[in-house]
Structure formats: C-alpha cells, structure tokens
Automatic annotation (TrEMBL):
InterPro entries: Acyl_CoA_acyltransferase (IPR016181), Bact_Acetyltransf (IPR050832), GNAT_dom (IPR000182). Keywords: Acyltransferase, Transferase. It comes from Streptomyces hydrogenans. It comes from the Bacteria. This is N-acetyltransferase. Residues 18-180 form the N-acetyltransferase domain. The keyword ATP-binding does not apply. Pfam families: Acetyltransf_1.
C-alpha cells in the first residue's frame, strides 16, 4: 500500500482520473483541513452528508492524523487527482478484519461516484494485501443517510454500539446528548 496506484481501468476511473498513495507525515497539513471540511462547519454543507448539525469543533487534529500515519498496521490512504489531494481514508489491520475510518471526500466532489471508487479500492487492498475477511467501521447512529449509503455498498448494521467520547474536545463539541457509534461490517470473501 506504499505506492501510487491508479484506479483499475474503467469508464468511471478514466473520467475521475485518481491515484492512491500512502500518506506521510508531511501530508498532515493537507489532511487535517480535508477531513474537517468533509465533516464539520459550513464547508461540510457543500457535500451530501455532514456532521455539522450533530457536532461543532474539530473532527481531528494534527496529532490524531500523525498517529494514524505512524501507527503499526495502519495506513492513511490519500486519493489524488492532478496532484491534488481530494480524499482520504484510514485502513487498519486487525487480524482477519480491517477497519475503515477517517473517510473524507472534498464536499464539492461528493455525490459524483468518487466515494464508491475509494471504498471499493480500500476493500480490494485489505483483502489482497492483508487477507482481511471483513471490513469494519463505526458510524454515528444519527447519520442515517450515511449509514444507508454504506448499506447500499454491502455493509450491515450490527446493533453493537459504543459511546461517543463526550467531554473530549479532540472529537468535537456535541450538539446533542444522544450520540453513539454503531459497528457496521461487510464480508470481503
């Protein structure tokens, strides 16, 4: 997962023209605002999905992104078009499963099929390179529209939830008191 790899050749990938590469620490100043713009604040409202009605504050910070980049068994995959970073996702090796997180697509590019390409590429990579049998992710349960998008990609809700880290401003400032995460799972075999 270390090299820039073109998207498998299809009509969609030719139109989109993206490449993938593993993030390095020098990419942190690009990744933080990308993730922020896709999740929080007014910029996030330019896409089809946002957390802006659920949370204020930051989605991540430089230390959090650096930790993902440097953690053993973790890859922050950057998606570039014409030399510009347009999306990213975190892949973490967890034995027979892989974790998919920190998925961000620039808001103005959302809804055009890029997210579908990225998640398919992420699934292919963890299956082929880590022999992962499942992809796991956690999504805030109040994000029903986003969960429905993942369900259309083959992910299923497990009903297994975990609490939102209230009181830890590194994860944002909740606007509601009922936030929690749900585990979504997709078999990759």
């Amino acid at each position: 997962m270390d090299t820039a790899t073109p998207v498998p050749e299809t009509a969609t990938s030719r139109q989109v023209g993206v490449t993938y590469r593993r993030a390095v620490l020098d990419d942190v100043p690009v990744v933080v605002p990308l993730v922020q713009s896709a999740y929080r604040g007014d910029a996030s409202r330019g896409g089809w999905t946002t957390e802006a009605d659920l949370l204020d504050g930051q989605r991540t910070d430089p230390e959090g992104v650096a930790a993902v980049i440097t953690a053993p068994g973790s890859v922050l995959l950057l998606v570039e078009r014409d030399g510009e970073t347009v999306a990213c996702c975190q892949l973490e090796h967890r034995g027979e499963a892989a974790y998919f997180g920190m998925f961000a697509v620039r808001p103005e590019l959302q809804g055009a099929g890029l997210g579908k390409l990225i998640i398919a590429e992420a699934e292919r990579r963890v299956r082929e390179e880590w022999d992962a049998r499942e992809m796991h992710m956690t999504v805030i349960t109040a994000r029903e529209e986003l969960i429905a998008w993942y369900e259309r990609r083959g992910y299923r809700r497990t009903g297994e939830t975990s609490p939102f880290p209230y009181g830890d401003e590194r994860f944002g400032l909740p606007r509601r008191d009922d936030l929690r995460f749900e585990l979504l799972v997709k078999p990759l075999v």
